[in-house]
Design brief:
- The complex is a heterodimer of chains A (526) and B (334).
- Chain A is of the alpha/beta class and 526 residues long.
- Chain A folds into 3 domains: 2-95 and 174-252, Rossmann fold, CATH 3.40.50.300; 103-172, no CATH class; 258-344 and 429-526, Rossmann fold.
- Chain A has 19 helices and 22 strands.
- In chain A, the strands form 5 sheets. A 6-stranded mixed sheet of chain A has the order 6-9-10-3-11-12, sandwiched between helices. A 6-stranded mixed sheet of chain A has the order 18-19-20-15-21-22, with helices on both faces. Chain A has a 4-stranded antiparallel sheet with strand order 2-1-4-5, covered by helices on one side.
- In chain A, helix 1 crosses helix 7.
- Chain A is globular, with a radius of gyration of 24 Å.
- The two termini of chain A are 14 Å apart.
- By secondary structure, chain B is an all-alpha fold.
- Chain B has a single domain, classed as ABC transporter involved in vitamin B12 uptake, BtuC.
- Helices cover 77% and strands 2% of the residues of chain B.
- In chain B, the strands form 2 sheets. A two-stranded antiparallel ribbon of chain B has the order 1-4. Chain B has a two-stranded antiparallel sheet with strand order 2-3.
- In chain B, strand 2 and strand 3 form a beta hairpin.
- Chain B starts with a helix and ends with a helix.
- Classes of the chains: A alpha/beta (526), B mainly alpha (334).
- The interface between A and B is medium-sized, with 36 and 29 residues.
- Chain B: The chain crosses the membrane at residues 22-42, 54-72, 79-100, 106-130, 137-155, 175-201, 232-254, 260-278, 285-305, 311-327.
- Chain B: It is a multi-pass membrane protein.
- Chain B: This is ABC transporter permease.
């Protein structure tokens, strides 16, 4: 039904008055200008995508519009007057809301309590749980979120939390809704539902500003596209006039010769890593697989399908049982990440800020944190040694830093990921497991990380990539194992690796259920 | 690759002023201000005798604070140090008194070795219960605080455990003696701090300790054994408490149920004033020492001046820890 609305939608109405107009807006931190001379109009009833590499100034621009920061230059004209927002609450009162990329929910409260936090519905001064519950159920159903109203947020998957956060933003009517990378943690079917919701918002006359790294989404969704590069506004384009290649070229400022390196093809070498009958209670049921040197093995599936948990189980980070785990044919007993390094297994977490790097520590100590025992033979730490390692890593992995004394948290996402990769590779693992190698990373860095992965596989290492990005699995992996509900449902090799095949294997059961329900509903309507 | 070559220039262009880390210097600046203020209030404050006395008194808290810097840096907390000090002092005296008839004065070195072992053991108990039992360190050490305190009350029968008369004289120099005019406890304290800062800043253990405190998950994913590091931090704390007890025993010549009462509060205050974040991360050993001296200076100034009753010393110290936290928060934001 929603699709019908989309199809009959008229072309963007050029007569629509601008809801907001930015003129010459810029932002300066100290002596560093991170955004300059942005002239942007936001119209009611449009989906306006903002694209650009990390550090291009997208988030800064959105934070200006949503009142989190005030511009250093230029004026913001909103609803026929020049405005200065005093904080996000002020902007929200005037009808502008930002859905953050990070999940900002109170983990120990329930879904309903989070949705209505700070704006609880009361009756005669007493909290009115029933009204809030009903609103919550309606709102969550509209987003296709499976979280129950009285579930504690801590128990929810990341995707469910993201949905709750979006539901919270949409609880009240706004004139401008800004989504900052809303789909980074969602899987294909969840993304589809969210995109439908966003289209419905637009059709109600809301202006939607949409930031995403996923150009396929932008192409499918946006009416107009504004491109930022290095803090400059490159231009605003009608979506129909740009292909994904055009967008990438405008963002990067050069032709992207090729995002993915040439595939190597599945390998038939002796497996370097064998896992037999692994069970991680509550997440993974009886999973067996092998990884061979010279190929990239992908793990696909929905978030919550148990992909990350397999490897956390193997590395003793959560309780798990396996009939056998072998490295180079020899059984190993791994109880900790340290044992894993010992056995030649390196694991890059998907959560590089929370579990990968010490954000407030300098680069060199971060780089060598896992390597202290072999790097320093003497009793004391000689900082020259780690600084040499840092120099090597900066050259080897092209980490762009303006000073070596920076803290890891001051690097961009792409450079953090490169630092984390360098940190893991310092252990010289023969099996490299990379969980979401390019989450939240711009295209330029993405392509570099892919070529690093290609390089290490060609050196004869085995590489396992866990990814929620279909394009990445298809573009990078020679063999893909697809998981659903803690089990491996498909093994795809070489040409069999297509987006459709992965989606099918990841959703096969739930799709059947959904179509049955849909049939029942349709019958009911008849 | 080419970008980085120019960056070293950028760094060297930073002015000396910018390169000074004001947060690290904070406690020492505060100490300097306090000295000036103290002199203005009462010139006697700066007399060599007074300064010597005050600094010597600060050494107990200072020595324990060095150990506490490890524990807090690793993201834990030890509330049991005051009770542990009393317990360690008590068993040390009992052990030496028991040895005196056969060993004579040699009972003193034997007692020192013994109490160091007791301290390490007490710390080990704290650490193992925290790490193996996976219980909040606050709760565990709240428990052992009661346990160690009850032990000393039980051993002393509610009274005091005096040191054997024959040991009193030979033991005296450990608190009252001086080397080149510097009181022995001050030298001991400095030695503890030097060894402590070497361990914390220049060894793998120190690195790992700070990493565990800054982010447990990162440490675990980096292959660091969080339990081992934290347990070792508690053991170091225990050894420091024992060293403080060794210096403390000759001062009063006895251990009583009130020995070391509320020391845990002063120790934690000293560490926090010193710039170590209570939630863990980078530890500031010399800052902790400065913190301990600041606390003692303030108490001394309140006695020397007539502005505030000395009965309010604890109140002022309480306010100081809150202000120190506020300053930390303020400086973190910028």
């Amino acid at each position: 039904m929603m699709e019908a609305a989309v199809e009959t939608r008229a072309a963007p109405d050029l007569e629509t008055a601008a809801l907001m107009r930015l003129t010459g807006v810029g932002k300066k931190y100290g002596s560093v200008t991170v955004l300059r001379d942005v002239n942007l109009t936001v119209r009611a009833g449009e989906i306006h995508a903002i694209i650009g590499e990390n550090g291009a100034g997208k988030s800064t621009l959105m934070r200006v519009i949503s009142g989190h920061i005030q511009p250093s230059f230029g004026t913001v004209h909103y609803l026929d007057e020049d405005v200065v927002f005093h904080g996000p609450a002020d902007a929200e009162k005037r009808g502008i809301v930002l859905v953050h990329q990070e999940i900002l929910l109170a983990e120990d409260l329930t879904v309903v309590e989070n949705l209505f936090l700070g704006r609880e519905v009361t009756r005669h001064g007493v909290i009115d749980d029933r009204t809030m519950e009903q609103t919550a159920i309606r709102q969550l159903a509209a987003l296709g979120c499976t979280a129950r109203p009285w579930q504690i947020v801590r128990e929810l998957s990341i995707a469910q939390r993201q949905m709750v956060q979006i539901a919270r933003a949409l609880l009240e009517e706004h004139r401008i809704v800004i989504f900052d990378e809303p789909t980074a943690v969602l899987t294909a079917s969840e993304v589809d539902l969210l995109l439908d919701t966003i289209r419905a918002l637009r059709d109600r006359g809301v202006a939607v500003l949409y930031i995403s790294h996923r150009l396929d989404e932008v192409e499918a969704l946006a009416d107009r596209i504004t491109v930022l590069r290095d803090g400059n506004m490159i231009g605003t384009y009608d979506a129909g006039t740009l292909t994904q290649q055009d967008m990438a070229r405008l963002m990067v400022g050069r032709e992207l010769s090729m995002l993915y390196p040439h595939k190597r093809g599945t390998s038939d070498a002796e497996p370097v890593f064998e896992v037999e009958h692994l069970t991680v209670p509550g997440f993974v049921h009886d999973v067996s697989f092998v990884a061979r040197p010279g190929e990239v093995l992908g793990f696909g599936g929905m978030i919550g399908a148990g992909r990350t948990e397999i490897f956390e189980g193997i590395l003793g980070l959560r309780p798990a049982k396996a009939a056998a785990i072998r490295v180079n044919g020899k059984p190993v007993h791994i109880r900790s990440v340290a044992d894993g390094f010992e056995a030649g297994i390196g694991y890059l977490t998907e959560d590089r800020k929370g579990k990968g790097l010490l954000l407030r520590e300098r680069l060199a100590p971060n780089l060598v944190l896992s390597a202290l025992s072999w790097l320093y033979r003497k009793i004391y730490i000689d900082e020259r040694i780690e600084n040499e390692q840092l120099d090597t890593a900066i050259r080897r992995y092209d980490i762009r830093v303006r000073s070596r004394k920076l803290e890891a948290g001051q690097l961009s996402g792409g450079n953090q990921q490169k630092l984390l990769l360098a940190k893991t590779m310092l252990q010289d693992p023969s099996i490299v497991i990379i969980d979401e190698p390019t989450r939240g990373i711009d295209i330029g860095n993405k392509s570099q990380i892919y070529s690093f992965i290609d390089e290490l596989v060609r050196q004869g290492k085995a590489c396992i990539v866990i990814s929620s990005e279909l394009q990445e699995l298809v573009g990078l992996c020679d063999r893909v194992l697809v998981m659903k509900d803690g089990r491996i449902t498909a093994e795809l090799r070489d040409e069999e690796v297509t987006e459709d095949a992965v989606v099918l294997a990841a959703t096969v059961g739930s799709d059947a259920v959904a179509s049955r329900e849909e049939n029942a509903r349709d019958r009911h309507h008849l | 690759m080419h970008v980085t070559d120019t960056t070293s220039e950028l760094v060297s262009k930073e002015s000396v002023f910018q390169r000074i880390n004001w947060v690290d210097l904070g406690p020492f600046l505060a100490l300097a201000v306090l000295v000036v203020v103290g002199y203005l209030i009462n010139p006697d404050f700066l007399s060599p005798t007074n300064i010597t006395n005050v600094v010597t008194r600060a050494t107990f808290i200072g020595i324990i604070a060095v150990g506490a810097t490890f524990v807090i840096s690793s993201g834990c907390l030890d509330l049991s140090v005051g009770s542990m000090a009393a317990f360690a002092a008590g068993v040390m005296i009992l052990f030496m008194n028991w040895l005196v008839p056969t060993w004579g004065v040699n009972a003193i070195p034997a007692g020192i070795v013994f109490v160091l072992c007791v301290g390490a053991l007490c710390g080990l108990v704290n650490g193992l219960v925290v790490t193996l039992g996976k219980i909040e360190p606050f709760i565990v050490t709240l428990g052992t605080m009661g346990v160690y305190r009850a032990f000393i009350t039980f051993l002393s029968n509610g009274g005091s455990i005096p040191i054997d008369r024959s040991l009193r004289e030979p033991f005296r120099p450990l608190y009252f003696g001086t080397v080149m005019g510097i009181p022995v406890p001050v030298i001991v304290c400095a030695a503890v701090a030097i060894v402590g800062s070497f361990i914390l800043y220049k060894t793998k253990f120190g690195r790992r300790c700070a990493a565990v405190g800054a982010n447990v998950d990162v440490a675990r994913f980096s292959g660091i054994s969080v339990g081992k590091i934290r347990t070792l931090a508690f053991v170091i704390q225990g050894i420091c408490v024992a060293i403080a007890a060794i210096c403390y025993v000759p001062r009063l010549g006895a251990a009583t149920p009130t020995t070391g009462l509320l020391w845990e509060l002063q120790v934690i205050t000293a560490v926090v004033i010193g710039g170590t974040a209570l939630r863990g991360g980078k530890g500031h050993i010399w800052g902790s020492l400065a913190g301990a001296v600041i606390l003692e200076f303030i108490a001394n100034l309140m006695v020397l001046s007539d502005f505030i009753s000395e009965y309010l010393v604890a109140a002022v110290q309480g306010v100081i820890i809150i202000v120190a936290m506020l300053i930390q928060r303020f400086s973190r934001r910028s």
